Amino acid sequence: MRLVIERGELLRALGHVTSVVERRTTIPILSNVLLKASGSVLAFKATDLEREVIEEAPASVESAGSLTVPAHLLHDIVRKLPDGAQVELNREADNDRLTLSAGHSRFALQTLPAEDFPDIAVGDLPHTFEISSGDLKRLIDKTRFAISTEETRYYLNGIYLHTSAANPDNPVLRAVATDGHRLAQVDLPLPDGADGMPGVIIPRKTVHEVHRLLEASGGSVTVGVSETKVRFEIGTVTLTSKLIDGTFPDYGRVIPQSNDKEMKVSNAEFMSAVDRVSTIASERGRAVKLAVSSDKLVLSVNNPEGGSATEELGVSYAADQLEIGFNARYLLDIAGQLEGEEASFLLSDPGSPAMVRDTSGGGALYVVMPMRV
User: Fold this and answer.
1) In what order do the strands lie in the sheet with 322-327?
2) What is the C-alpha separation between 86 and 5, in angstroms, rounded?
3) Going edge to edge, which strands form the sheet with 229-234?
4) Contact at 8 Å (CB) between 158 and 247?
5) Which of 261, 296, 265, 301 is nearest to 280 (CA)?
6) 190 conformational bin, left if phi > 0, alpha if psi -120 to 50, beta if neither
7) CA–CA separation, 30 and 13 (whole Å)
């Protein structure tokens, strides 16, 4: 195999694929990236057996071939080469080393056979649809903070992506995440081709990887779904992932239906106030008390070891007086996702979960469980 490729193109492609390569693995070839040169393209593939990323970059290929080399080592070398450098990759047929040359720099890297590189058999993906990168990024942004990190409840370690026809006139594509303490739900109009797709739980690592790829992408994303796999085609990158094999709980049961005490508050003022008073809260509890009465909200924190703090805000509230406690971090996470100037809190009693809606609309709702304070 012999080719020449521009350093920027090589670095871009390696940056996309090496992110799924584990730095420590008991299977040596999983530390490698598969390089395959043919025509005028150098193709890249990397996997951790759960996820697989495929990318390609234009190259001047003198002789075709394929091999695998240590992914992070290659990425680190290319990252340190000067901008605009022309990188030559060469491996002679009777040699097990890849030679990388750029200017006066020369590196020889150990290779492993391309035939030994694992392949995630994708199989048939019967449901395929297109979604704008902005819409997909929004679904992820507004739900991923609520993904559980508790491994024992593995079925909560991802985003539940499914269709909902609760309103037959307005079917939606819905993303839901919960860790048992808070829940995030976001809806989008149902894309063409998504109707009838199975509900799937996309693993946390895959969610973060898709989000990273979307940061540098515009246009549309093609999503393919089966019972066991999901595939995202984002620009020149294709990410395939196994799904979490489990049943997502009936989240509808925890969404309050009878919370009739509505409090509207400036979201920016609320976030700042919660952030200030929670400074004094204990790291363990992070509890903040909300005492809401006619058009007034008093936020308070009492930490026996650190002191106390209170702050008063003007709000729109006409129901009975109520005192309720929440984890300050959860309140800030939710408020940080709201797009409107006002946040709408729908409350019931001190022991019941609160529902938070974005007054700008947008199909997002959040549920947060109370704390005893």
Assistant:
1) 307-314, 296-303, 287-293, 322-327
2) 6
3) 65-70, 32-38, 41-47, 51-58, 237-242, 229-234, 220-225, 127-132
4) no
5) 301
6) beta
7) 17
Whether pTM exceeds 0.90:
yes
Q: Give the number of other Cβ atoms within 10 Å of residue 40's Cβ.
A: 10
In sequence order, what are the residues at sequence separation of 6 or more whose Cβ sits closer than 8 angstroms to the Cβ of residue 15? 75
Distance between CA 247 and CA 252 in Å, rounded? 14
Q: How many helices (H) and strands (E) does the chain have?
A: 6, 26
Per DSSP, helices labelled H in the chain are 7-17, 71-79, 133-141, 204-215, 267-277, 328-335
* CB contact at 8 A, 108 and 98: yes
Q: Which CATH architecture has domain 2-116?
A: Roll (3.10)
Q: Which two three-digit tokens encode residue 330? A: 């959860």
Confidence (pLDDT) at 261: 95
Domains 127-253 and 256-368 share a fold: yes
Closest by alpha carbon to 263, among 172, 309, 178, 326?
326
| Backbone torsions φ then ψ of 140, nearest 5 degrees | -70, -50
- Give the pLDDT score at 122: 67
- Residue ranges per domain, the chain? 2-116, 127-253, 256-368
Q: Give the residue carrying structure tokens 């240590």.
A: 70
* Tens-place pLDDT, residues 163-172: 998 788 889 9
Architecture of the domain whose range is 127-253: Roll (3.10)
User: Which residues touch 26 (CB under 8 Å, ≥6 apart)?
Assistant: none
What CA–CA distance (Å, rounded) separates 87 from 92?
16
Q: Does the structure show a pLDDT above 80 at 220?
A: yes
For residue 2, CA distances in Å to 77, 206, 354 come to: 18, 33, 62
Which CATH number is 256-368's, of 3.30.365.10, 3.40.50.10860, 3.10.150.10, 1.10.3720.10?
A: 3.10.150.10
Is the pLDDT at 238 greater than 90? The verdict is yes
Q: Is 113 exposed, middle or buried (0-12, 13-18, 19+ CB in 10 A)?
A: exposed
pLDDT higher than threshold 80 for residue 362: no
Nearest of 69, 72, 27 to residue 48 by alpha carbon: 27
DSSP 265: E
Q: Rounded mean pLDDT of 233-240?
A: 94
